[in-house]
Amino acid sequence: MHRPPRFSSFPVVIVLVGLAGCATPQYQTAYRYEPPADAQGRSCVQGCEEKKVACQADCQARYQACQKDAAPLVEEQYLKALKEYELDFKRYTTVLRHYEIQYYNSGPYGPWDYYHGYYYPWHLPTCTCRPTPYPPCPHAKV
Description:
The structure is a single chain. The protein is mainly alpha-helical. The protein has helices spanning 10-22, 39-106, and strands spanning 114-115, 118-119. Helices cover 57% and strands 3% of the residues.
């Protein structure tokens, strides 16, 4: 018995919901500033503008004074951090050199291969058991 294929309405519902989402109205808020029509309103706006300019100038002056006071502290902290970096770098290089000396003197190389901070690979280990280029003939008599 052969049943006809079932038609699923789920994909159709998804497509319709998606299309309905595109058709919704979209709102946008727009602001439009207009000066007041009467003299009292214009006077109020002018007073607010003057206060805003004075406030911004005061803020800029305080900001520049703060920068001027902080500049020596920043330079001092920078120099301190630079000195700490130099000390850390010296410690690191000392530990690295010690490690390299220990590594090269304890390996298959001799203690004289490491001289004045440089490694000379004079005595590299070589493999004495090299594979033959062809497998031995099974009929050959040895």
